[in-house]
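Subject: Interface between my chains keeps coming out wrong

I've been trying for a while to get a sensible model of this assembly. When I model each chain on its own everything looks fine, but I need the whole thing in one frame so I can look at the contacts. Pasting all components below, labels as-is. Any help appreciated, I'm running out of ideas.
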Amino acid sequence: MEIIMSQRQGRVPVTVFHVKGDINTETYEQFQAQAQQAIQAGTRYLALDLAEVSYVSSYGIRAISQVFTWLRDTSQGEDAQALDRDLKDGKWKSPHLKLVNPSSQVRRVLTTTGVDMFLEIHDDLQRAVASF
Amino acid sequence: MDMTSRLRVPAELQNLGVIRRFVQETAIAQGSDRQAVADMLQAVEEAAANIVVHGYCGQPGDIEVEVSLEKAVLAVRLRDRATLFDPTSVPPPDLALPLEERRLGGLGIHLARHFTDSMTYRVTDDGRNELTLRRKIGS
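Reply #2:
Try treating it as a single job with all components included. I did that and got this:
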């Protein structure tokens, strides 16, 4: 797996991870480590471009969830209890992490595991960046 | 005519790619369609990772992988000598829980179940776990 990082400017500065390869048992730690580095370097809004990802396993789902949690924890002033309640009700989507261009196979994994309940999935990177 | 191919590898995470490639190349050569193979690969990766991580728990051992096409059904059998465990008995995860509170094994088995038509378990005559994943081709 390879991650090419770029910066886009929407209403807020957005880091884009263009991921190439699979996010699975063998690669999820590398994925998490690179996301953690970016967050430590100041990233608060992250778009994952999955156009070149053919496969995401449950370990990949866990890793994406971990990145979601890190980004949520960096935000100040959000009511944690209200957020958890709305998350369970499916009324809340992360303002910090969005997914872009998953293949139909990867999209099925995202919906089967419930990731689409708290992460927006976009078909166009430019619109995804603008939506932050 | 049924066709069967078999692979045996050490149960290590770095061999999951070897297992995936074997299943992919064998299933395609046997006549399975790409969608059936893609779905099966999702299930096989989850099941094999569970055997390595939760079954053998880092102890040495083997995984035997058998791929066959049986009357328009792609079947993959995974056999191992880890502690006896029936993954089909694992209940589906509660998707209302935050992901960090869900069990990892449960999520993988949920995916394996979702991407196949059936998942069955038995203990072989020589005392091994055997998980059989089946996916219809051409659907």
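Reply #3:
Confirming on my end. Chain B is about 35% helix and 25% strand.
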